[in-house]
Amino acid sequence: MIYTVTLNPALDKTLLATGLEPETINRARVLRLDCGGKGINVSRALRNLGVPSVATGWIGGATGEQLAQRLRQEGIQTNLIPIVGETRTNLTIHDQHRGVLVKLNEAGPTVSNEEVGGFLKHVQQHVQQGDIWVLSGNLPPGAPDDLYATLIRLIQGAGGNAWLDASGVPLRLGCAAAPKLVKPNLSEAESVVGRSLATGDLGEALRTFLDMSIACVAISLGKDGAVIADGRAAYWARPPTVQARSNIGAGDSLLAGLLWSATQCMPLAEMIRWAVAAGTAAVLEEGTGVCTRARTEALYAQVAVAPL
Ligand SMILES: Nc1ncnc2c1ncn2[C@@H]1O[C@H](COP(=O)(O)OP(=O)(O)OP(=O)(O)O)[C@@H](O)[C@H]1O
Ligand SMILES: [Mg+2]
User: Fold this and answer.
1) Which numbered atom of ligand 1 lies nearest the CA of 248?
2) Which ligand sits closest to the CA of 252?
3) Hey, which of 38, 136, 192, 283 would you mutate to test ligand 1's pocket, going by the most ligand atoms within 8 Å of its Cβ?
4) Which 3 state secondary structure label does DSSP give 135?
5) Across-strand partners of 54?
6) Residues near 26 by Cβ (< 8 Å), separated by ≥ 6?
7) pTM of the prediction?
8) Domains plus CATH for the chain?
9) 34 is a catalytic site residue
């Protein structure tokens, strides 16, 4: 079974306003409501690729209920754990009059030590041999920086596989716990390696992660695709040049492509080829869209893979 973990999900609300003025009542129309969060996006991309997964994480209050209900309507299986605080709402306001976009992201609810302990217990009760648990996105206030590291040890101690896609201190501490796979982008990889990376340094950067006992590492490079290595081989997969509409969900779709190809037991070169096809399929979608199966299959043939 594949589980995705989203500890700080959000309801993404997009409003259309006709001119924002201070000290007056501004009128707006709700354009879209989306369930946001990296793990949730991975589950959505997996659903599009035809792979079942369970989305887990924390939800709270009426917003959390709304989020869970919407996910079920989308056909995504969930096992979300309630907390006292309210799930955050992230606002995007399109001011048509001024032609500007205002984004307001909440930090998210503060979780208590008891809630952290409750989530660890939840994972302990569900994890089974051979599972993949995808840990992605940032942590909510109150969660310890080493929460991903603790989860990785717990999951892998029970015979599961932890895959990590995070940033900052939780990423660095998580890497030290040796997840089975880690997927940083270039700047996240630089923060772990401790220096800026030029094209010629990528092989060495991959090696740094492998030396931390991480079995497989993929570094995504935006329009330049991604590099991947396990102990035996390393490849660079490059997508065709495309007209990018939105890069939201690109990294999550790349991860879904890796998961899908891993469940098919594909060799490493094929895994990164499908993953880059899925990531690039996501940038062709407007807004928060993730990859579709049709676009991923169409792009697959155009991704060039070479040994690194
Ligand atoms: N401009 C682009 N053109 C083509 N493909 C792209 C472009 N940007 C991203 N991609 C695809 O998406 C994949 C992941 O992109 P990126 O490296 O930007 O991930 P990320 O920074 O982790 O994204 P996220 O914000 O979702 O976490 C790339 O490997 C590539 O396949
Ligand atoms: Mg990312």
Assistant:
1) 26
2) 1
3) 283
4) strand
5) 3, 77
6) 17, 19, 20
7) 0.95
8) 2-6+37-80+107-307 (3.40.1190.20)
9) no
Tokens of 252: 């999550």
* Residues 131, 160 contacting (CB under 8 angstroms): yes
| Block residue for tokens 């190809």 | 261
Report CA(119)–ligand 2 centroid distance (Å): 23
Judging by beta carbons within 10 Å of its beta carbon (0-12, 13-18, 19+), is residue 120 exposed, middle or buried?
A: middle
Percent pLDDT > 70 in the chain is 99
By alpha-carbon position, which residue is closest to atom 12 of ligand 1? 279
pLDDT at 289: 84
| Six-digit token string for 294 | 């049709």
pLDDT tens track for 35-65: 989 999 999 999 999 999 999 999 999 999 9
Ligand 1 neighbour 296 (Cβ under 6 A):
no
Q: Is 250 in the pocket of ligand 1 (CB under 6 A)?
A: yes
Q: Which ligand is nearest to the CA of 284?
A: 1
Place of tokens 């035996």: 232
pLDDT digits (tens, 9 = 90+) for 219-228: 999 999 999 9
